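Subject: Re: docking follow-up (zinc ion)

Dear J.,

Thanks for your patience while I sorted out the input files. As discussed at Tuesday's group meeting, I've set up the holo structure prediction with zinc ion included as the bound ligand rather than trying to dock it afterwards. The sequence and the ligand SMILES I used are pasted below, so you can double-check that they match what you have on your end before we go further.
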Amino acid sequence: MEPTAAQLAELARQLAGTAPNEIDCEAVLDCVAAYFEATQSGITPSADLAMVGQHLEVCPSCLEEFQALVRASAGE
Ligand SMILES: [Zn+2]
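The structure tokens for the complex came back this morning:
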């Protein structure tokens, strides 16, 4: 039986919803400095760091931590 368009849309929504949970805030905060350095030096982030970037898009508290690094860097 073929899934309906509505079922596929629901599945896609669920998958999108679970993606941010693949990496938790504690892991992001451990990596946020490395992620920041990668973005500063123009390095293509590794898969782990790319997940940090994805998490920052959905997690305001981790994004705040990242922005604190950006501000500290800009203030130097
Ligand atoms: Zn977070």
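A couple of observations from a first look. The mean pLDDT is 85. The chain has one domain: 21-74.

Let me know if you'd like me to rerun anything.

Best regards,
T.
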